[in-house]
Fold this protein.
Amino acid sequence: MFTGIVEELGEVVAIEDLGDASRFRLRGELVTQDAKHGDSIAVNGVCLTVVDTADGEFTADVMAETLKRSSLGALVPGSRVNLERPMELGGRLGGHLVQGHVDGTGVITERTPAEHWEIVRISLPPAVARYVVEKGSITVDGISLTVVDAADDHFTVSLIPTTLALTTLGIKQVGDPVNLEVDVIAKYVERLMGRDTQDKSHAAAHEGGQA
């Protein structure tokens, strides 16, 4: 589990094609300080398992399905990436609960700079639009952000100078893809509400049969 507070802006060093997967070698001196084989590190919001570490770098295998369903497939050597280690129990939850499981990808469609922040508009896939609400939380490339406005096909976020300076959202341009993960609580609520509706329907049908 992660918090969406990026610890380090890392870099893709190399990508090895394994046929049905790719092995990424990434530079991240901070996140590799205590990393070992089998640990998790979020790369642009995707939870990856560390294969090995050496000299401030780590490698991770990425399945073809993950490459297809996330923006990791668009990365090349030299690409900058957001890195975060898992949250420790008892630590501060500075963002929100982030699983590192991408729900879909969006595209940056507009950037509007202001004096002290920047408004970024991102396209919203129909499959995840119902989970995005104004003032709710969303994870963009592993960054915990608050939704400013939400529509059926897009949403906007407001980025402070720190976010612009320390994450990939400071360098990504219009047309670039981003990974999206919605608030998992919204998905649980939807599931529970749907089950409650089904239970009531079954109960009503049962009572009708007894009548």
